[in-house]
Amino acid sequence: MIRIALFLVAFLLCASYAIKTGGQPERAAMLAQALALLLSSATGFLTVSGGFWTEVPGWLIADGLLLIALTGLALRANRYWPIALAGLQMAAMFAHLTKAIYPALPPFGYALLLQMWAWPMLATTAIGIRAHQLRVRRSGPEPDWKPSDLNPILP
Fold it and tell me: What is the pLDDT confidence band of residue 1, given thresholds at 50, 70 and 90?
């Protein structure tokens, strides 16, 4: 349980960093990750403990919704790091696909594949926040979002 407590502390530190110094995309990424964490907790995080013998449907739903949110963010944000974040989440989705294709996957392997992407996702988010902070300090304010195709910028 110490690893869960450490992750939650790191998550809260990253979330407060995003709120304090991040732009809208950084805050949106942390909000999406926080909602996925809450949904995962509500749908089996505490009850699965050691029981990764079968697919965890609540986590599949939470991970799928997070992938959709992060992909949308990667497409709209005026940043590069959300692309890497969405890619890491896609790797987490492959854990569910692996268990669905190969049900005999050992429980430890399934648990490891599901959980190992959370730390790199936090690191990517923190690095993205820091990069945004440095760009703003160096060049001044920058647009958070790409121009919308529905509302093009007129010359």
Answer: confident
CA distance linking residue 130 with residue 126, whole number of Å? 6
- 74 assigned to some structural domain: yes
Residue closest to 19 by CA, chosen among 119, 133, 141, 117: 133
Buried b (16+ CB within 10 A) or exposed e, 116-148: ebbeebbebbbebbeebbeeeeeeeeeebeeee
Range of the domain at 116: 18-45+55-138
Domain-located, residue 123: yes
- 152 is a domain residue: no
When the pLDDT of each residue in the chain is averaged and rounded to a whole number, the result is 90
Length of the chain equals: 155
